[in-house]
Specification:
Length: 401
């Protein structure tokens, strides 16, 4: 769906909810920011945790919903192409090579958009998110590096309308983008581009500190981290050093409750409603996975095509036994001794799933875990909240009660 030459539909402007007030999604609120604006009027329809409507919004955003008989569609959503890529000249200080920042800069400086919704951090804390509408290269670069905490990206939507911007790029994660798509027609834009990242297991700022304290050798110097394809958590420290902790050595018994309930109830790991998705999960180690979902997504990718080294996506290994074994291990909070965790990590890295099969491993592991979470904590929501594609994936495994 394009908004070119369309006017904003009249909309009811409600009073934004006060900071700290109870959100309609209650404990499942992902703090996407919509309730912080006068678009709160639409929250019962727009919120991913009150009204699961991925298939309908896929049709509107991409021209079709996913084909559940196609394995790639089933797992990765509607797409025109998938590619592995990395910048030939990485951006200094970027979490990976800076593809997302480069696209945002190119779109802004070419005049294709007048502003970019992205997330910087506050002056006081490197991990506390500060959503902004970036209007120049410096403001975009100030937003590089992921913030692994719940972030109210959509809190700036009022500013978009008030500023008179007509061409906008929004960078966000799945729950934010579903809400954005639901109110898209109300924004008065001539053109909206959506650049998404895959997202899973965000935390509150307090939860993040607990994770760092539990997992890293130097929690106060961590600049960024990521759960990577080699089955290790990679930490980057302020002195430039790197730290790696095997997945199987995480203190699961201490971390089971650290992730936000919204993330434990999410089935949109791959950001189904973005035009272009950039992440690592379906690419070889050291590369990024680019999923073009529609023509706008291809337009975004084309902006930096001459800055990228690319290769076809690949897939090897078999995830299914590893996923099935991980279900009771996580459920019971099993933690291996570090020596055993490292050994298992080496073995799985050599013979385990890679490329798209690793992506499927990650999706399967999280969908089965999240299905159990919803079933146990919100059984009244289970039937309506779990999308058909997620149900098909979960049904492939044997789950505990």
């Amino acid at each position: 769906m394009t908004l070119a030459n369309s006017a904003a539909a009249p909309h009811h402007k409600a009073r934004a909810l006060k900071p700290g007030s109870r959100r309609p999604a209650k404990e499942l609120c992902s703090e996407c920011g919509l309730c912080d604006t006068y678009y709160v009027h639409y929250v019962k329809d727009a919120c991913a945790f009150l009204n699961q409507q991925v298939a309908t919004l896929e049709e509107e955003a991409h021209g079709r919903s996913r084909n559940l008989e196609s394995e790639d569609d089933l797992y990765f959503g509607v797409h025109q192409s998938m590619t592995a890529a990395r910048k030939t000249e990485p951006i200094a200080g970027a979490q990976w090579t800076g593809i997302v920042s480069s696209i945002a800069i190119a779109m802004l400086e070419s005049g294709k958009v007048e502003g970019v919704v992205c997330v910087q951090n506050t002056d006081e804390d490197r991990f506390t998110p500060k959503p902004v509408i970036a209007r120049n290269r410096e403001e975009i670069l100030a937003a590089r590096v992921n913030k692994p905490t719940l972030s109210p990206n959509l809190s700036v939507l009022e500013l978009v309308e008030q500023s008179g911007l007509k061409k906008l790029l929004v960078i966000g994660v799945g729950c934010q983008i579903q809400a954005l798509r639901a109110v898209e027609k109300q924004l008065g834009l001539e053109k909206l581009y959506v650049l998404g990242t895959p997202c899973v297991d965000n935390v509150t700022r307090e939860g993040l500190q607990h994770f760092l304290n539990t997992t890293s050798r130097s929690p106060d110097t961590v600049v960024h981290y990521e759960f990577m394809q080699d089955f290790r958590v990679h930490f980057k420290h302020s002195d430039g050093s790197e730290e790696q902790v095997p997945f199987f050595g995480l203190k699961t018994n201490q971390l089971k409750d650290v992730f936000a309930p919204s993330c434990m109830s999410c089935f949109d790991y791959v950001n189904s409603l973005a035009d272009l998705v950039v992440g690592y999960m379906g690419a070889p180690f050291g590369w990024q996975w680019l999923v073009v979902r529609n023509d706008r997504g291809q337009e975004l990718m084309d902006m930096v095509a001459d800055q990228l080294e690319t290769q076809p996506v690949m897939s090897s290994g078999d995830r299914k036994a590893a996923v099935q074994q991980s279900i009771p291990a996580y459920d019971k909070g099993v933690t291996l001794p570090m020596w055993a965790a490292k050994l298992m990590g080496v073995v799985i890295e050599r013979i385990g799933p890679k490329g798209l099969e690793y992506a499927r491993f990650s999706i399967d592991s999280h969908f089965t875990r999240n299905y159990l979470y919803v079933k146990r904590n919100h059984p009244e929501k289970l039937a309506d909240h779990v999308p058909p594609y997620a149900q098909r994936i979960v049904d492939r495994y044997t789950l505990p009660d």
